[in-house]
């Protein structure tokens, strides 16, 4: 179900919220009426991160609520905690006593909105009851648009493969396009072979639901942006079958597609002045008589031959054909996003989105934007000496180099071979999943890197 992640309308009777940091806690309490100050001291309020103290008022209704901001170091360790604390307040309408400004203010307000998210497609969930009036000093409407796009990404990732196969992913793209007047075209099944997308067809041909390439286009700006998202709706590993423990989360293997659709929604809802193209190769990697095999060699759209040394390294194959298409009409900026390698998780864990680019200015703009919007990313290298690791000798490329080292880097190098003419390219190897509940991020699907990219695009840092 669509999520209603919005602020409340102005309300003259809203309960005031005071955000207080530890250094200013004593002065803030001293400024309160004596009885309220004594109450707060009695309850040990000291402005620690996400600490809440409701001050008694008339008829059992709080006169105000104190919320601890914690220190800057606290907020860095536990982002969105203040906004989540506000969302967890008892049912009432609240209004901040002072405007919110800057990155910290945006984090608090967005943290509140994202804390409203519930995945309730299969079971009713208890909604948050606190209603926060749109804070002054911020672009509240933009934050609502960002939260709505993040909810789309989360919903797509959280939906099981039975209800989120390649056909359903196509429907999601068409629904999104309909909301913003975008165009969608889809190439399905054996038409992929006729239109020269052999790797997408190869990976998806054994599944009951046909593979497809989804393309969404929007806008007429002079600057062009292409987003490519891995849409493997379920990954058994193919004939190199995953063990059950590794297969349990494979509904999220379309997290790259879900993330680029969420980013596309941000871009279109904001009305950014650019021409947007989204490419999603949507497949299921299944086990059947038609499944592709280890040792097979296939020719990609751009003519490069690829030896299959592991059918569980299928994401880079479907992305290869999509990136080759993107390379034929190079955009000013091309971004690929994929839940591509376990090696990335070993390197940076589930909370950081590693990315690769050869463009130092682009990397700097991304890093700065990520810090501003509390969407952590980290640059990893396209390390040229590892190029030999993806060259098997019998074919141009190896989809799964042996040795088990530098797995995320070699996957990124593999993808870069398919965009030689793209002037600016970045690849994100994301996880798209919160393994445990955290402030504003319940356990389950989550967007990574999209908010950082959107801030960079909106600020023009990529131009």
Descriptive account of the structure:
One of its GO terms (molecular function) is metalloaminopeptidase activity. This is Leucyl aminopeptidase family protein. It holds the Pfam family Peptidase_M17. The chain is of the alpha/beta class. The chain has two domains: 15-116, Leucine Aminopeptidase, subunit E, domain 1, CATH 3.40.220.10; 145-459, Zn peptidases (Aminopeptidase). It contains 16 helices and 19 strands. It has helices at residues 25-30, 34-42, 72-77, 81-87, 102-115, 140-158, 166-180, 191-194, 198-204, 244-247, 255-270, 315-328, 342-348, 360-372, 407-416, 450-459; strands at 15-20, 52-55, 64-68, 92-96, 130-132, 183-188, 212-218, 224-229, 231-235, 275-285, 297-299, 305-307, 333-338, 353-357, 377-380, 397-398, 425-429, 433-434, 444-445. The strands form four sheets. Strands 6, 7, 8, 9, 10, 13, 14, 15 and 17 form a nine-stranded mixed sheet that branches. Strands 2-3-1-4-5 form a five-stranded mixed sheet, sandwiched between helices. A hairpin with a 5-residue loop joins strand 11 and strand 12. Helix 6 (140-158) runs antiparallel to helix 11 (255-270). It is elongated and about 80 Å long.
Q: Give the C-alpha Rg.
A: 24 Å
CATH class of the largest domain: Alpha Beta
What level of helicity do the residues show? 25-40%
Class inferred from helices and paired strands? alpha/beta
Give the termini distance in whole angstroms: 36 Å
Percentage of residues in strands: 15-25%
Count of DSSP H/I helices: 16
Biggest beta-sheet profile: 9 strands, mixed
Organism: Roseicyclus persicicus
Protein name: Leucyl aminopeptidase family protein
Family: Belongs to the peptidase M17 family.
GO molecular function, one term: metalloaminopeptidase activity
């Amino acid at each position: 179900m669509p999520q209603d992640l919005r602020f409340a309308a102005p309300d003259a009777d809203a309960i005031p919220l005071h955000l207080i940091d530890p250094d200013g806690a004593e002065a803030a309490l001293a400024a309160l009426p004596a009885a309220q100050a004594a109450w707060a001291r009695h309850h040990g309020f000291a402005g620690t991160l996400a600490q809440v103290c409701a001050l008694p008022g008339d008829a059992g209704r709080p006169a105000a609520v104190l919320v601890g901001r914690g220190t800057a170091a606290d907020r860095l360790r536990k982002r969105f905690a203040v906004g989540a604390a506000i969302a967890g307040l008892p049912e009432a309408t609240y209004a901040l006593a002072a405007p919110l400004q800057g990155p910290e203010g945006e984090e608090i307000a967005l943290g509140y909105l994202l804390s409203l998210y519930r995945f309730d497609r299969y079971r009713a969930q208890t909604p948050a009851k606190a209603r926060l009036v749109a804070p002054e000093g911020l672009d509240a409407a933009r934050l609502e648009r960002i939260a709505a796009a993040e909810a789309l990404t989360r919903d797509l990732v959280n939906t099981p493969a039975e209800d989120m196969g390649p056909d359903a992913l196509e429907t999601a793209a068409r629904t999104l396009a309909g909301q913003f007047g975008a165009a969608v075209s889809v190439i399905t099944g054996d038409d992929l072979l006729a239109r020269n997308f052999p790797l997408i067809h190869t990976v998806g041909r054994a599944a009951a639901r046909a593979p497809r390439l989804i393309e969404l286009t929007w806008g007429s700006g002079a600057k062009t942006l292409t987003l490519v998202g891995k849409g493997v709706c379920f990954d058994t590993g193919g004939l190199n079958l995953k063990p059950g423990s590794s297969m349990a989360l494979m509904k999220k293997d379309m997290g790259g597609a879900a993330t680029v659709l969420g980013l596309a929604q941000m871009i279109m809802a904001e009305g950014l002045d650019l021409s947007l193209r989204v490419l999603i190769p949507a497949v299921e990697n299944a086990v059947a008589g038609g499944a592709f095999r280890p040792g097979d060699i296939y020719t990609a759209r751009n003519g490069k031959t690829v030896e299959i040394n592991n059918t569980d390294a299928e994401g880079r194959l479907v992305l290869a054909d999509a990136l080759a298409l993107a390379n034929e009409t190079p955009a000013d900026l091309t971004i690929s996003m994929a839940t591509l390698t376990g090696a990335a998780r070993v390197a940076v864990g589930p909370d950081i989105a590693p990315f690769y680019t050869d463009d130092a200015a682009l990397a700097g703009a991304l890093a700065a934007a990520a810090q501003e919007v509390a969407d952590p990313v980290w640059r990893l290298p396209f390390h040229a000496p590892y190029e030999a690791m993806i060259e098997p000798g019998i074919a141009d490329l190896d989809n799964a180099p042996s040795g088990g080292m530098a797995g995320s880097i070699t996957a990124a190098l593999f993808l870069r071979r398919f965009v030689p003419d793209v002037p600016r390219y970045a690849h994100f190897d994301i996880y798209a999943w919160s393994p445990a509940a955290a402030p504003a991020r319940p356990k389950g699907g989550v967007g990574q890197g999209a908010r950082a990219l959107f801030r960079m695009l909106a600020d023009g840092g990529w131009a």
